[in-house]
Each structure stands twice: as structure tokens, then as C-alpha cells.
Amino acid sequence: MSDLNQATLTAGDKSVALPVLKPTLGNDCADISKLTKETGLFTYDSGFTATASCKSAITYIDGDKGVLLYRGYPIEQLAEKSSFIEVAYLLLNGERPGADQLKAFEAELSKEATVDDSINALIGSFGKDAHPMAILAASIAQLSAKYHNSLDLNDAAQRYQAAVRLIAKLPTLAALIYRHGKGLNLNAPDTSLDYVSRFLKQTFESADGKYDLNPNIVKALDVLLILHADHEQNASTSTVRGVGSTGANPYASVAAGVTALWGPAHGGANEAVLKMLEEIGTADKVEDAVAKAKDKNSHFRLMGFGHRVYKNFDPRAKIISVMTQKVLAELGVNDPLLEVAVKLEQAALQDDYFVARKLYPNVDFYSGIIYKALQIPTELFTVMFALGRTPGWVSHWLEQQTDPEMKIVRPRQIYTGSPVRDY
Ligand code: CMC
After folding, report:
1. pLDDT above 70 coverage of the chain, percent
2. How far apart are CA 168 and CA 156, in angstroms?
3. Which of 172, 198, 286, 412 has its CA 20 to 30 A from that of 17?
4. Does 72 score more than 50 pLDDT?
5. Could you give the angle at the alpha carbon of 394 between the alpha carbons of 393 and 397, nearest 5°?
6. What is the distance between the alpha carbons of residues 273 and 269, in angstroms, rounded to a whole number?
7. φ and ψ of 69, to 5 deg
8. In the predicted structure, residue 234 carries a pLDDT above the cut 90
């Protein structure tokens, strides 16, 4: 924060005073909302690299220092001491739950975990080779159809219930999508289990309903979900808010968030990283891959490297990198791709191209290796990201609904087409 309370912009013979808004943490923001009225000028910021789209009290990132806070709590402390469900409650409500509140929240999630037959029929209608993210987006859109007529967005309790319902149903949808791809029966979640165990059992249980829960796997997955739970105004969350700003229902807004997450520049990177590591194959090919990533003609990027906001280590990547070694050791998995990943990380971190551009490993760099060790297929990785991100999406949607400054998202453009001409 600075002492600056006002910035002045001079446009020709006009001088405009722009109020400077002060966040609790982070960069001050010049408020340009009156600029057009006073000067006729729009501003241009492709990709919103320097533009705040809203005020939010949920998550804070300091990209230069590699800091990530959910509701003020450092991600490292939450990963060590909390659970995904506690984090989801924290994101939704702003405060950590007491023991009774946590119990009640878990009970609500269990109660809402099942889906009806229309979802099974929808998932069953897709080809076995359909990408899981396409099925996930369609399934959530189906929920929007089911709940649309009965949902009153002016009722705070109904809004909250929709948010909880989405968090509750995501693991069920993910499990069903996995089972459909494998040609397994579309089963129901075991609502006597905790959130993560419920997902694992429904996903992997055998025909006679048996699955041995391994506490190491449950814990590893729980931490991975915590690390993905929110990341302020990223592309998918901004999409959820963009759709939410039109008054669309939360299911429709989150379905849009899922499609935004799918792209390889965003959540789809975790799938792309594993494919890249498999293509590199062995540690001796790492140097070639780094050279290719630097060659602008190759259109190849090191997936899992770089971030719009982090110009330092992604704190989530630091946690995952340590966790990967631990989880693989606990599960007795010896994955040669880990050696390729470690060598690639070392090579890139010492390379001038990556150093100069401040490109560090991001959350997706190691997550795929853990998912693979947990037997989750590569094409389901981004669905796992969506499962983790849902509390963030719905928290932002809830926050937006009561924001007195909320307006429909409607950016301007710089028109570069033909001037008016006759037909
Ligand atoms: N490999 C090689 N070069 C890169 C990479 C990379 N992964 N990322 C950025 N660059 C270069 C880029 O070519 C550009 O170079 P130059 O200045 O010479 O033109 C410079 O670094 C800046 O890149 P940018 O594309 O302008 O940066 P951005 O902030 O628009 O993009 C990014 C951020 C994450 C899309 C990008 O770094 C990227 O494509 N990374 C790989 C995909 C990936 O891992 N995505 C997951 C992001 S973390 C999870 C999430 O939040 O979704």
C-alpha cells in the first residue's frame, strides 16, 4: 500500500482525478469507472493483466513473493492442519467452522451427494471415449435444468444450498464419469463415508461394492483438493462470475467455469503435463525438451511452468513436489516419470530463458504424478481440478450475488474492422 489517494490522468487539455482504492493487502487500484464519462476514453488491457474486475474478500495472492491465502490463512498451514471440507466451509463462510458446524456441514454434503437417474442416463449417453470434462460440463448443466424453476436467487438460504449442493455432487459426478469410461456400473455414493473416502470408494469399488480405503491415499487426495480450492480471479472463476453477473443460476455458471478450466493454459495443464512427461520419456531427453520450449517456432511450451500471477515459486507446487516423493514412497510406487519431472524442473530453473521470464513450476507440474499414483486416469485429471475448485467457484458466486457494486460483465473493445460502407 502507498500513501497515494488519487492518481491523475491527463488526456489532451483535460485532467482527471482517479480515486485510488486501498485493498487490505496488495496493489492499490486506480478507479477508472468515471474515466469514460469525463474524457470519452476507454482503457485497453488484453487478458486483464492489470485490471481488477471486482472486490473480493476470499483469496489473496502475492505472485512476487509466492504467497497464497484463503480468507487470510496461508495455504501451507491449511494444507498441514486443515481438511478439504473445513477449507470449503471457510471459503464459503469466511470463518473456520467450530466442531459442530463442521459436523453439520459434512452431514449436509452427505445428504446432497446423490444424483438422480436422469444424470446416470445423461452420462450413459456419451461415448466411452468422450472427454470427461465434456461430460462433467453437461452433467452440471443438467443440474441447472433440474433446479432452475425452483431456485429463488433472492433467497440467501437457497443460494447457499445451491452452493453446498454443487460441492456435494461434484465427487459423485466425477466417480460416475470415471466408471462410465471404464464400462463399469453407475453406482451410488456411500453417504456414510467422509467426502474424499466417498469419492474414492464410489470410483474404484468392485462389482460387489468392496474397496479398501488407504488412509495415505485419502490424506494425499484431501491435500491436493485443498491446494486447488481457490485462486482468486483466474480464468474459470472469472467465467463463473461473468456468467453469474447475468443472473444465470449457479449451476449454469459453474458449468461454464468447467469449460473454461478445461483449456491447457488453465486446468487442462495437469493432463498436458503428464502427456508431455510421457512423450519426453527418459531423463536424457530433458535437454531437448527445454530447447524446444525456448524455440518460438515450435509452439511447444513446458506444461506446468509459468503463471500469470506467480513470478516466483507457486506455493502449491512447493507443497506438491514434497508430497509427490512422500506419496510415491508410501504407496511403494516407482514411477520413472518422476525422474523426468525432477530433471526437467532442475534444467528449467537453471536456464536463462526461464530465469529471465520468471517461469517456475506451477500447481499442475507434479499433481499429475500423484494422481497417476492414486490410479486416476490422465483424462480425469482436470475433473479432479474441477472437484477441488468447486468451493472456490461457488464462494465467488455467492460473494458476487450480494456485492452492491456488481454489474453485468460487459467489456469494451477496440474495433479494428471496416469503417461504415454501403451494401
Ligand atoms: N514454456 C515456455 N515459455 C513460456 C511458458 C512455458 N510454459 N510460459 C510462458 N512462456 C514465455 C512466453 O512464450 C513469453 O515469452 P516472450 O516474452 O519471449 O514472448 C513469456 O514467457 C510470457 O508468457 P505469456 O504467455 O505472456 O504469459 P501469460 O501470463 O499470458 O501466461 C500461462 C501464463 C500459465 C498461460 C503460461 O505460462 C503457460 O502457457 N504455461 C503453460 C501452461 C500451464 O502450465 N498452465 C497452468 C497454469 S497454473 C494452473 C492454473 O491456474 O490453471
Report:
1. 100
2. 18
3. 412
4. yes
5. 90
6. 6
7. -120, 135
8. yes
Please name the residue whose Cα sits nearest to atom 11 of ligand 1: 357
Which of 396, 302, 314 shows the shortest CA–CA distance to 340? Answer: 302
Distance CA 150, CA 157 (A): 13
Catalytic residue among 222, 230, 314, 364: 364
User: How many angstroms separate the alpha carbon of residue 306 from the centre of ligand 1?
Assistant: 5
The pick from 61, 239, 286, 357 for probing ligand 1's pocket by mutation, whose C-beta has the most ligand atoms within 8 angstroms, reads 357
Instruction: Give, rounded to a whole angstrom, the gap between the first and last alpha carbons of the chain.
Output: 55
Confirm if 29 and 23 have CB atoms less than 8 A apart. Answer: yes
Q: In angstroms, what CA-CA distances link 211 with 111, 129, 207, 301, 373?
A: 21, 25, 10, 39, 17
The residue to mutate among 295, 305, 310, 385, having the most atoms of ligand 1 within 8 angstroms of its beta carbon, is 305
Q: Is 364 a catalytic residue?
A: yes
pLDDT at 1: 46
* Global confidence as pTM: 0.95
- Quote the pLDDT of residue 112: 97
Cα(380)–Cα(357) distance, rounded to whole angstroms?
A: 31
User: CA 359, CA 350: separation in Å to the nearest integer?
Assistant: 11
Q: Give tens-digit pLDDT for 1-56.
A: 457 899 999 988 888 999 999 999 999 999 999 999 999 999 999 999 999 999 99
CB-based pocket (< 6 A), ligand 1: 231, 234, 265-267, 269, 293, 301-308, 357, 359, 362-364
Characterise 306 by phi-psi region: left (phi > 0), alpha (psi -120 to 50), beta (else).
Answer: left
In this prediction, residue 303 has a pLDDT band, given cuts at 50, 70 and 90, of very high
Q: Which residues partner with 305 through β-bridges?
A: 361
Percent of the chain with pLDDT over 90: 94
